[in-house]
Amino acid sequence: MRSISIFGATGSIGESAFDLLMGSGGPEAWRTVALTGGRNVARLAEMARALRAEIAVIADEALLPDLRAALAGTGTEAAAGTQAIAEAADRAADWSLSAIVGAAGLAPGLRVVERGGTLALANKESLVAAGRLLMGTAQRTGATILPVDSEHSAVFQCLEGGKLEGVELVTLTASGGAFRDWPLERLPHATVAEASSHPNWAMGQRITIDSASMFNKALEVIEAHEFFGLPGERIEVLVHPESIVHALVSYIDGGTLAHLGPPDMRHAIGHALHWPRREKLPLARLNLAAQGSLTFRAPCETRWPALALARQVIAQGGAAGAVLNAAKEQALDDFIAGRIRFTDMAGAVAHALDLAAGRPGFGASPDSLEAVLDWDAQARRDAAAWQTAAA
Ligand SMILES: NC(=O)C1=CN([C@@H]2O[C@H](COP(=O)(O)OP(=O)(O)OC[C@H]3O[C@@H](n4cnc5c(N)ncnc54)[C@H](OP(=O)(O)O)[C@@H]3O)[C@@H](O)[C@H]2O)C=CC1
Ligand SMILES: CC(=O)[C@@H](O)[C@H](O)COP(=O)(O)O
Ligand SMILES: [Mn+2]
Fold it and tell me: Which HAMAP family match (predicted)?
């Protein structure tokens, strides 16, 4: 029986993974080692009961008594705190899903890779903030990292497992998010509610807003650079409002392979869960006759300044990814809290990158979790202070 752990079980990706596991035998077919959540004790306990998890961990330490009470009599151990989440990653599981949102996902993912495990990676922030560290550690320990982000899973599938021979260009598609067709002058007035609605995918609020600002695609360009080892100029973004084609791989002989599927993350998660085999998944099949047409257009860099920031970060290397990721997280917090406007987020991130570039050590890739977190903390402070600096 294969064993699994899910970090971020109570989120959108975690729920999709849970659905796949329950639909393919549940606890009779899978041994669940660890499930973690941030604050949603009730759902975490429900999932732990259903999958008979060995341990359930909640990030918020104040919620430990609630989790203990919810798991009483089940045999599932209860724990709390970020350290407990990282320690849960040390427990041997054949397959671990990294589905915590934000830089908080880096520590447990890195622990899985340090013990040479298999990490199915939805948490793109890990690769953006610490690509060299994560990929270098995997190389050293023999760990396997499998992409779960839909575009990267699509590229991986087109590459038949990651072979780069003869590849000229990788194209990541982007829906364009909530404001794809808004007049530019309306963007500064976009509300959090408006930005929190995605045209095609049902996802957590943070990645949904990142889709609207195109920061999601900016992260994904860096993620592709780190994961596949391709230079930035060979990674392109193409706006595709239908989100049916997830990525394309173009070869030096002029041929292009595309990966298509309905916008449902259970495909990419299921692919990583069963890799290197393919298993039948209970998902809707594509009906291109009903779809009728697929459309594409080049991204407008005036509407989406985040894309140029991604190019800048790849060119800078070193700590730039950690800075961009953290500054973006801070700017997103500030937008959600009403402290800055939607269109201010790119300015705050650019400001943090400018300041970081003048600091000693910026040109070197952070070589430990602590080093990543130092750049992360400073970038959050810089992004938060952007408004004052800009005034
Ligand atoms: N949703 C999607 O379709 C896709 C998501 N991704 C990536 O997958 C990751 C998860 O996204 P998504 O599922 O949408 O996010 P959600 O916001 O839906 O879920 C996030 C998960 O992380 C937990 N969490 C939040 N903060 C912390 C913290 N500080 N420490 C520990 N756990 C925490 C949440 O717990 P709780 O809810 O209990 O508070 C929840 O389990 C992100 O990196 C995203 O970019 C990539 C491609 C597609
Ligand atoms: C499902 C997934 O992988 C998301 O990252 C998705 O790509 C978001 O849609 P956008 O194309 O709007 O960024
Ligand atoms: Mn994606």
Answer: DXP_reductoisom
